[in-house]
Amino acid sequence: MDYSKYSVNELMDCLNNIDKDAHPENYKKLVLEVENRKPEIEVAQKQDQEEFTFSTENRVKLLSWLQIATCVGFTIAFADVLIGSMELLDLIVYGVIAVFNGVAGYKLLKRSRYGYELSYLNQILQILTINTGTLFFTYTGLGSFLVGIEGELFFRANILSTDFRFYTGENLGQLGFGVDLVAIFFLSVLHSCRELGLDAKANKQINQDK
Protein backbone atom coordinates (compact mmCIF):
# COMPACT_ATOMS: atom_id res chain seq x y z
CA MET A 1 0.00 0.00 0.00
CA ASP A 2 1.40 3.40 -1.07
CA TYR A 3 0.26 6.01 1.47
CA SER A 4 2.42 8.79 0.01
CA LYS A 5 -0.36 9.79 -2.38
CA TYR A 6 -2.97 10.03 0.40
CA SER A 7 -4.21 13.42 1.58
CA VAL A 8 -3.87 14.37 5.23
CA ASN A 9 -7.55 13.64 5.87
CA GLU A 10 -7.29 10.27 4.15
CA LEU A 11 -4.19 9.40 6.18
CA MET A 12 -5.86 10.23 9.47
CA ASP A 13 -9.01 8.38 8.48
CA CYS A 14 -6.93 5.28 7.68
CA LEU A 15 -5.03 5.59 10.94
CA ASN A 16 -8.27 5.74 12.92
CA ASN A 17 -9.85 2.78 11.15
CA ILE A 18 -7.08 0.37 10.15
CA ASP A 19 -6.97 -3.06 11.80
CA LYS A 20 -3.29 -3.27 12.72
CA ASP A 21 -3.57 -6.93 13.67
CA ALA A 22 -5.13 -7.92 10.36
CA HIS A 23 -2.83 -5.69 8.29
CA PRO A 24 0.45 -5.30 10.23
CA GLU A 25 2.59 -4.38 7.19
CA ASN A 26 0.17 -1.72 6.00
CA TYR A 27 -0.07 -0.40 9.54
CA LYS A 28 3.71 0.01 9.75
CA LYS A 29 3.78 1.81 6.40
CA LEU A 30 0.92 4.05 7.51
CA VAL A 31 2.56 4.98 10.82
CA LEU A 32 5.82 5.73 9.00
CA GLU A 33 4.04 7.96 6.48
CA VAL A 34 2.21 9.81 9.27
CA GLU A 35 5.51 10.35 11.09
CA ASN A 36 7.24 11.59 7.93
CA ARG A 37 4.41 14.05 7.24
CA LYS A 38 3.88 15.12 10.83
CA PRO A 39 4.57 18.86 10.21
CA GLU A 40 2.08 18.88 7.31
CA ILE A 41 -0.51 17.06 9.42
CA GLU A 42 -0.08 19.47 12.36
CA VAL A 43 -0.53 22.49 10.06
CA ALA A 44 -3.67 20.98 8.51
CA GLN A 45 -5.16 20.10 11.89
CA LYS A 46 -4.41 23.57 13.24
CA GLN A 47 -6.05 25.14 10.21
CA ASP A 48 -9.14 22.96 10.59
CA GLN A 49 -9.40 23.90 14.28
CA GLU A 50 -9.03 27.61 13.53
CA GLU A 51 -11.69 27.44 10.83
CA PHE A 52 -14.07 25.62 13.16
CA THR A 53 -13.42 28.11 15.96
CA PHE A 54 -13.92 31.08 13.63
CA SER A 55 -17.18 29.62 12.33
CA THR A 56 -18.47 28.90 15.82
CA GLU A 57 -17.53 32.34 17.13
CA ASN A 58 -19.39 33.96 14.24
CA ARG A 59 -22.50 31.97 15.09
CA VAL A 60 -22.20 33.06 18.72
CA LYS A 61 -21.91 36.69 17.60
CA LEU A 62 -25.07 36.18 15.55
CA LEU A 63 -26.87 34.80 18.61
CA SER A 64 -25.62 37.76 20.66
CA TRP A 65 -26.99 40.30 18.19
CA LEU A 66 -30.26 38.38 17.84
CA GLN A 67 -30.76 38.63 21.60
CA ILE A 68 -29.98 42.35 21.48
CA ALA A 69 -32.43 42.73 18.59
CA THR A 70 -35.01 40.79 20.62
CA CYS A 71 -34.42 43.30 23.41
CA VAL A 72 -35.33 46.05 20.94
CA GLY A 73 -38.42 44.11 19.85
CA PHE A 74 -39.76 43.73 23.39
CA THR A 75 -38.85 47.36 24.12
CA ILE A 76 -41.10 48.37 21.22
CA ALA A 77 -43.85 46.12 22.62
CA PHE A 78 -43.33 47.77 26.01
CA ALA A 79 -43.69 51.22 24.41
CA ASP A 80 -46.86 50.16 22.57
CA VAL A 81 -48.47 49.01 25.82
CA LEU A 82 -47.30 52.15 27.61
CA ILE A 83 -48.87 54.36 24.95
CA GLY A 84 -51.97 52.21 24.58
CA SER A 85 -53.56 50.01 27.22
CA MET A 86 -51.01 50.70 30.00
CA GLU A 87 -51.59 47.21 31.42
CA LEU A 88 -49.21 46.95 34.37
CA LEU A 89 -48.60 43.20 34.01
CA ASP A 90 -47.75 43.52 30.30
CA LEU A 91 -45.39 46.40 31.06
CA ILE A 92 -43.58 44.34 33.70
CA VAL A 93 -43.32 41.23 31.49
CA TYR A 94 -42.14 43.07 28.37
CA GLY A 95 -39.76 45.21 30.38
CA VAL A 96 -38.17 42.24 32.16
CA ILE A 97 -37.81 40.23 28.94
CA ALA A 98 -36.31 43.22 27.11
CA VAL A 99 -33.70 43.77 29.85
CA PHE A 100 -32.99 40.03 30.10
CA ASN A 101 -32.32 39.72 26.36
CA GLY A 102 -30.24 42.89 26.32
CA VAL A 103 -28.03 41.76 29.20
CA ALA A 104 -27.68 38.19 27.86
CA GLY A 105 -26.83 39.40 24.36
CA TYR A 106 -24.31 42.01 25.51
CA LYS A 107 -22.55 39.69 27.94
CA LEU A 108 -22.35 36.91 25.35
CA LEU A 109 -20.98 39.33 22.75
CA LYS A 110 -18.28 40.47 25.16
CA ARG A 111 -17.64 36.90 26.40
CA SER A 112 -18.13 38.23 29.93
CA ARG A 113 -19.28 36.44 33.06
CA TYR A 114 -22.70 34.75 32.88
CA GLY A 115 -23.06 35.51 29.17
CA TYR A 116 -23.27 31.82 28.30
CA GLU A 117 -25.46 30.92 31.28
CA LEU A 118 -28.01 33.65 30.56
CA SER A 119 -28.07 32.76 26.87
CA TYR A 120 -28.53 29.06 27.73
CA LEU A 121 -31.51 29.94 29.92
CA ASN A 122 -32.93 32.25 27.26
CA GLN A 123 -32.89 29.50 24.62
CA ILE A 124 -34.19 26.81 26.98
CA LEU A 125 -37.22 28.98 27.79
CA GLN A 126 -37.96 29.23 24.06
CA ILE A 127 -37.85 25.51 23.28
CA LEU A 128 -41.41 24.54 24.25
CA THR A 129 -44.78 26.01 23.33
CA ILE A 130 -47.44 24.17 25.27
CA ASN A 131 -51.20 24.21 25.76
CA THR A 132 -52.72 21.85 28.32
CA GLY A 133 -56.20 23.32 28.02
CA THR A 134 -55.81 25.10 31.36
CA LEU A 135 -52.30 26.49 30.80
CA PHE A 136 -50.78 28.08 27.72
CA PHE A 137 -47.13 29.17 27.36
CA THR A 138 -45.09 30.41 24.43
CA TYR A 139 -41.98 32.56 24.18
CA THR A 140 -40.01 33.40 21.04
CA GLY A 141 -37.37 35.94 20.18
CA LEU A 142 -37.13 37.30 16.65
CA GLY A 143 -37.75 33.98 14.96
CA SER A 144 -38.79 30.39 15.47
CA PHE A 145 -39.51 27.16 13.62
CA LEU A 146 -41.99 25.08 15.58
CA VAL A 147 -42.66 21.40 15.04
CA GLY A 148 -45.46 19.98 17.14
CA ILE A 149 -48.87 18.43 17.52
CA GLU A 150 -52.27 20.12 17.82
CA GLY A 151 -54.59 17.30 16.93
CA GLU A 152 -52.22 16.63 14.02
CA LEU A 153 -48.59 17.33 13.18
CA PHE A 154 -47.83 20.96 12.33
CA PHE A 155 -44.90 23.08 11.19
CA ARG A 156 -44.97 26.78 12.00
CA ALA A 157 -42.37 29.45 11.34
CA ASN A 158 -42.17 33.15 12.09
CA ILE A 159 -39.56 35.84 11.54
CA LEU A 160 -39.21 39.23 13.21
CA SER A 161 -42.07 38.54 15.60
CA THR A 162 -41.33 38.61 19.32
CA ASP A 163 -43.94 36.83 21.41
CA PHE A 164 -44.53 35.96 25.05
CA ARG A 165 -47.81 34.61 26.36
CA PHE A 166 -48.63 32.81 29.57
CA TYR A 167 -52.26 32.10 30.42
CA THR A 168 -54.09 29.95 32.93
CA GLY A 169 -57.80 29.28 32.89
CA GLU A 170 -60.41 27.01 31.36
CA ASN A 171 -60.81 25.93 27.71
CA LEU A 172 -57.75 27.73 26.34
CA GLY A 173 -58.08 26.12 22.93
CA GLN A 174 -56.61 23.13 21.13
CA LEU A 175 -54.40 20.92 23.28
CA GLY A 176 -50.89 20.49 21.97
CA PHE A 177 -47.23 21.36 22.13
CA GLY A 178 -44.44 22.49 19.85
CA VAL A 179 -40.65 22.36 19.87
CA ASP A 180 -38.65 25.30 18.51
CA LEU A 181 -35.83 23.94 16.34
CA VAL A 182 -34.18 27.38 16.17
CA ALA A 183 -33.75 27.46 19.95
CA ILE A 184 -32.32 23.92 19.89
CA PHE A 185 -29.86 24.93 17.16
CA PHE A 186 -28.57 27.88 19.18
CA LEU A 187 -28.26 25.68 22.26
CA SER A 188 -26.02 23.38 20.21
CA VAL A 189 -23.93 26.40 19.17
CA LEU A 190 -23.46 27.44 22.78
CA HIS A 191 -22.54 23.88 23.72
CA SER A 192 -19.92 23.69 20.96
CA CYS A 193 -18.38 26.89 22.33
CA ARG A 194 -18.11 25.34 25.77
CA GLU A 195 -16.39 22.31 24.29
CA LEU A 196 -13.91 24.61 22.57
CA GLY A 197 -13.28 26.32 25.91
CA LEU A 198 -14.30 29.76 24.64
CA ASP A 199 -16.32 30.46 27.79
CA ALA A 200 -13.40 29.36 30.00
CA LYS A 201 -11.09 31.70 28.08
CA ALA A 202 -13.55 34.51 28.65
CA ASN A 203 -13.70 33.88 32.40
CA LYS A 204 -9.90 33.65 32.57
CA GLN A 205 -9.64 37.02 30.87
CA ILE A 206 -12.08 38.52 33.36
CA ASN A 207 -10.03 37.23 36.28
CA GLN A 208 -6.84 38.66 34.76
CA ASP A 209 -8.49 42.05 34.39
CA LYS A 210 -9.41 42.26 38.07
TrEMBL record:
Membrane-spanning ranges: 62-85, 91-109, 130-155, 175-193
Lineage, highest ranks first: Bacteria, Pseudomonadati, Pseudomonadota, Gammaproteobacteria, Alteromonadales
Keywords: Membrane, Transmembrane, Transmembrane helix
Domain of life of the organism encoding this protein: Bacteria
Protein name (Swiss-Prot/TrEMBL): Uncharacterized protein
